[in-house]
Write a structure and sequence with these properties.
Number of helices: 11
CATH superfamily of the largest domain: MetI-like
Helix content: over 70%
Radius of gyration: 23 Å
Strand content: under 5%
Order of helices and strands: HHHHHHHHHHH
Mean pLDDT: 87
Number of strands: 0
Low-confidence stretches: none
Number of domains: 2
Largest sheet: none
Length: 269
């Protein structure tokens, strides 16, 4: 029975890897056929082969812009992680601070970053404005998920800690933070992709003002020049970057939870 279950799990893993690849290959094939059969000019819709050749020929420009965007994304994500987790801990330790500041965190989240970016570009240097946009978008998921995790502990365990005379710091480090880890990691996974989105939005706004060097700026620049193959190539790089960020954060989450949390243990067992 164990052998059959192991074989079934192997088939499931193979299918999870092969099916997305097959769907992608089918989509690319349909895209190429549509362009060829309808003889669509490249300034309207380039073929997949032209996008790939453009990616190779313009790699020096696109890769440099990608590094700029990734640097901003990583910095915004780290600031959001540190700020969101730190503020969530403060909220958990003081209801007064939570009631005073949480509504403003919600306001910051629900205000569209595309509306904030042009204003930030007026008052801040371009790099700082792009970084702030990446931080704004990524900050709230970390804060909200971590706050939820810290407030969702088993209160029977909390009473047991207090019964044995544990201090507030011991309850925080030995009970609340470990219990909140799954929600915290979920917030970080969301924040990773959102920080890239925030950086892209700000770079597009900077590009509209005639400045910028990131990958989103290259997309805007290519649109103005009707260089649609380069636009598609830059968009492909952005998509791959977002996928890599999600995969890395998912692997980190699984590594942190695989030995004790049900969401990871069940996949291995």
């Amino acid at each position: 029975m164990n052998g059959e279950q192991a074989a079934h799990e192997r088939r499931e893993r193979v299918l999870r890897m092969l099916l997305p690849v097959a769907v992608l290959a089918l989509g690319v094939l349909v895209w190429d056929l549509v362009v060829r059969l309808n003889q669509i000019p490249p300034y309207i819709l380039p073929s997949p082969g032209l996008v790939l050749s453009t990616l190779i020929s313009d790699w020096s420009v696109l890769s440099a812009s990608l590094l700029v965007t990734l640097e901003t994304t990583v910095q915004g994500f780290l600031l959001a992680a540190v700020g969101g987790i730190g503020l969530a801990v403060l909220f958990n330790q003081s209801r007064l601070i939570e009631h005073s500041l949480y509504p403003y965190a919600v306001i910051l989240q629900v205000t569209p970053v595309v509306a904030i970016a042009p204003l930030l570009l007026i008052y801040l240097p371009q790099e700082a404005a792009v970084l702030v946009c990446a931080w704004i978008v990524a900050f709230f998921p970390v804060l909200a998920n971590t706050t939820l995790g810290l407030n969702s502990i088993d209160y029977n365990l909390a009473d047991l800690f207090r019964l044995y005379g544990a201090s507030r710091g011991q309850v925080l480090w030995r009970l609340k933070l470990p219990s909140a880890l799954p929600q915290m990691l979920a917030g970080l996974k969301i924040a990773g992709g959102l920080s890239l989105i925030g950086a892209v939005v700000a770079e597009i706004a900077a590009g509209s003002a005639g400045a910028g060097s990131g990958l989103a700026y290259r997309i805007a620049e290519s649109g103005y020049r009707l260089n649609i193959p380069r636009m598609f190539a830059a968009l492909l790089l952005l998509s791959v970057a977002g996928i890599v960020i999600f995969v890395l954060l998912s692997a980190f989450s699984h590594l942190m939870l695989r030995r004790w949390h049900e969401s990871a243990v069940s996949r291995e067992g």
